[in-house]
Design goal:
The complex is a heterodimer. Chain A is an alpha/beta fold. In chain A, 37% of the residues lie in helices and 25% in strands. In chain A, the strands form 2 sheets. Chain A has a 6-stranded mixed sheet, sandwiched between helices. Chain A has a 4-stranded antiparallel sheet with strand order 2-1-4-5, covered by helices on one side. By secondary structure, chain B is mainly α. Chain B is built from 10 helices and no strands. The longest helix of chain B has 41 residues. The radius of gyration of chain B is 25 Å and the shape is flat. Classes of the chains: A alpha/beta, B mainly alpha. The interface between A and B is medium-sized, with 28 and 21 residues.
C-alpha cells in the first residue's frame, strides 16, 4: 500500500465576521486512511469539511489534494469538487428525483458518463448497500437509514478520491446508526480515504486511524483511538469525553 | 351503534345546511326581485332576445381573448422564469442584467396594467419605428406579457428561494456547476412548489385580457360595449361575464385541488 498523502490541510483559518471558526488547522489524510474529527457542536468540524470541498472560502492557509493546492483562487472549484465526495448530515437527497436519478445525475452531467454506464454503477452500489429494488422510489419513501445509504452511494457514484463525511449519523434514530457505521467501516476496509466529522464515537474508535479533537476552531489534541479515549492529556479533551460518558454516549 | 349515531349526525348536518341555504338565497332573491328598479334591470341586462342576437358576435370576440390569453401566458411563463433566473445569478459580470431585471420588475409591477396597455399600445405605435409591430393585438399582448412577467418572476423567485440551501450544497458537492444545479435540482423543485400561485396569476391574466379592448380590437368586451352604448342593451356584457366565469371558475377549482395536493405531499416529491 502506498503511503502518499491524499488530503492535506495547512494552517487553515476562517472567520464569519468577527467570529473565528477555524484557527490554524493542520492535518493530513493518507491514502486509504481515515481521520475522525470530534468535538462539541460549533467547534468547527463541519466548517472545515465545507472549506475542503470549497463550499466555503478560507481566509488563510492551504488545502492540498494529491499535492495540488486546491484553495488557490486560480484553481477551478468545480473540477476539485468532482474529485471529492461529500455526505451531509441531512442527506441532501433530491426529493424530486428517484433514487436511481439521484445517483446518476452527477456521473452523467458532471463526469460525462453515459447513462447506461452510470445506471450500471448506480445499481451495483444500491445492490451492495441493501437497496436493490428501491431504485425507482422517491427518497421520501425510504427510512432515514436508507436515505443516508443512498446519499453515501450517490457520493461514491462519481468514484471520488476521498470521502468527506459530515455528521452523517446525527440525524438518524439511534437504532439506525449501527448500519451506517458498518457501511463506513466496510468502505475503510476497501481502502477508501476518509475524513469524518462525527458525534458518534463508534466511528472514531472503529474506523479512524487518527482522532483529532477540535475545540473552538483548533485541534487541541490528536492521536489514535486508544490514546484519545484511554488517556487523553488535554483538559478540554478530558472534559468533552467526560460529558459524553455522563450522557451515556461512550 | 357508533356508526349509526355518526350517520344520524351527518344527516342532520346536511339537512341544516340545506334549509339554511334555501332561506338565505330565498331572502336574497326576494330582496333583489322586489327592488323598484328590477323590471328595468331585467329588460336591459337579462333579456333572452338580446342574448340570442348578440351571443354569436360576443363568442367570436371571446375566442380572440382566449387565443391572446394562451399566447401571452406562454410568453409570461418563459420570460418570468428568465427574469427570476437573472435575478438569482451571482456573477459580477452579469450585474447590469441583474440591475435591468430589478428595474423591469419594479416598473412593470408599479404601473397599473390598464395604463401600461395604453402606453405600449399608443406609445409604441406613435414611435413609428421600423420593424416594430403595429397590430394593437400584438402591442396590447406585449403590454400584458411585460406586466405579468414581472409578477410571475417574483413568484418563481420565491419558489427558488424556498428550496433549502442544502439542496444547492448537495448539488455543488457532486461536482455540478451552479447552472446545472439550478437546472436539474433547484428549478424543478421550485416550479412544483409555485404551481398554485402561478395558476392564480393565470386567472388574473385571463381576466385582464379584456383590457386590450381600449386599443380597439373586436374582442368580446369591446363588442358588448359597442352594443351597450349604441342600443342601451347590457345583456351582451352579462354574457361576456358568463363566458369569463366559464373559464375562470374551473381554473380556480384546479388551483384549490393542486394546493390541497401539495399540502398533502409536503416535499413536493409527487410527480406533476
Amino acid at each position: 500500500m502506498s503511503d502518499s498523502t491524499v488530503l492535506e490541510v495547512r494552517g487553515v483559518t476562517k472567520a464569519y465576521g468577527e467570529r473565528q471558526v477555524l484557527r490554524g488547522i493542520d492535518l493530513a489524510v493518507r491514502e486509504h486512511g481515515a481521520i475522525a474529527l470530534i468535538g462539541a457542536s460549533g467547534s468547527g468540524k463541519s466548517t472545515l469539511l465545507r472549506c475542503i470541498d470549497l463550499l466555503e472560502d478560507i481566509d488563510d492557509g492551504d488545502v492540498l489534494l494529491d499535492g495540488e493546492v486546491i484553495t488557490d483562487p486560480s484553481v477551478e472549484t468545480i473540477a476539485v469538487r468532482r474529485r471529492l465526495g461529500m455526505v451531509f448530515q441531512a442527506f441532501n437527497l433530491f426529493p424530486h428525483l428517484t433514487v436511481l436519478q439521484n445517483l446518476t445525475l452527477a456521473p452523467v452531467r458532471a463526469h460525462g458518463a453515459s447513462r447506461a454506464e452510470a445506471e450500471d454503477r448506480a445499481r451495483e452500489l444500491l445492490e451492495r448497500f441493501g437497496l436493490g429494488g428501491r431504485e425507482h422510489d422517491y427518497p421520501d419513501r425510504l427510512s432515514g437509514g436508507q436515505q443516508q445509504r443512498v446519499a453515501i452511494a450517490r457520493a461514491l457514484a462519481t468514484r471520488p478520491r476521498a470521502l468527506l463525511l459530515d455528521e452523517i449519523t446525527s440525524a438518524l434514530d439511534p437504532e439506525l446508526v449501527g448500519e451506517i457505521l458498518q457501511l463506513v467501516a466496510d468502505l475503510k476496509d476497501e481502502g477508501m480515504t476518509m475524513l469524518i466529522a462525527t458525534h458518534e464515537m463508534g466511528f472514531a474508535r472503529e474506523v479512524a486511524d487518527e482522532v483529532c479533537f477540535l475545540h473552538d476552531g483548533a485541534i487541541v489534541e490528536r492521536g489514535d483511538a486508544e490514546h484519545m479515549f484511554g488517556a487523553p492529556e488535554h483538559p478540554e479533551t478530558q472534559r468533552f469525553l467526560r460529558r459524553l460518558l455522563d450522557a451515556g454516549r461512550l | 351503534m357508533r356508526a349509526a349515531a355518526r350517520r344520524r349526525r351527518a344527516q342532520r348536518r346536511t339537512a341544516i345546511s340545506a334549509v339554511s341555504t334555501i332561506v338565505v338565497l330565498g331572502a336574497l332573491a326576494t330582496w333583489i326581485l322586489t327592488a323598484p328598479g328590477w323590471p328595468d334591470v331585467r329588460d336591459t341586462f337579462f333579456s333572452i332576445d338580446d342574448f340570442r342576437s348578440s351571443f354569436p358576435d360576443v363568442l367570436r370576440g371571446f375566442w380572440i381573448d382566449i387565443k391572446l390569453f394562451v399566447i401571452v401566458e406562454a410568453v409570461v411563463l418563459v420570460l418570468g422564469l428568465f427574469i427570476a433566473l437573472v435575478r438569482t445569478t451571482r456573477t459580477a459580470a452579469l450585474f447590469p442584467f441583474r440591475a435591468i431585471a430589478v428595474v423591469f420588475c419594479d416598473v412593470m409591477r408599479g404601473i397599473p396594467t390598464i395604463l401600461l396597455v395604453y402606453l405600449v399600445g399608443f406609445g409604441v405605435l406613435a414611435l413609428n419605428l421600423k420593424g416594430l409591430p403595429t397590430d394593437p393585438l400584438v402591442l396590447g399582448g406585449a403590454a400584458l406579457a411585460f406586466s405579468y412577467s414581472a409578477y410571475v418572476a417574483e413568484v418563481y423567485r420565491s419558489g427558488i428561494d424556498s428550496v433549502h440551501p442544502t439542496q444547492m450544497a448537495g448539488a455543488l458537492a457532486l461536482g455540478l456547476t451552479r447552472t446545472q444545479a439550478l437546472r436539474y435540482v433547484i428549478v424543478p423543485q421550485a416550479i412544483r412548489r409555485v404551481i398554485p400561485p402561478l395558476l392564480n396569476d393565470f386567472i388574473a391574466l385571463q381576466k385582464d385580457v379584456a383590457l386590450i379592448s381600449i386599443l380597439g380590437p373586436a374582442e368580446a368586451f369591446r363588442i358588448a360595449q359597442i352594443d351597450a352604448s349604441s342600443n342601451f342593451v347590457y345583456t351582451p356584457l352579462v354574457s361576456v361575464a358568463l363566458l369569463y366565469l366559464l373559464v375562470t371558475i374551473p381554473l380556480a377549482r384546479l388551483v384549490d385541488h393542486l394546493q390541497a395536493r401539495s399540502r398533502r405531499s409536503r416535499g413536493g416529491a409527487v410527480a406533476l
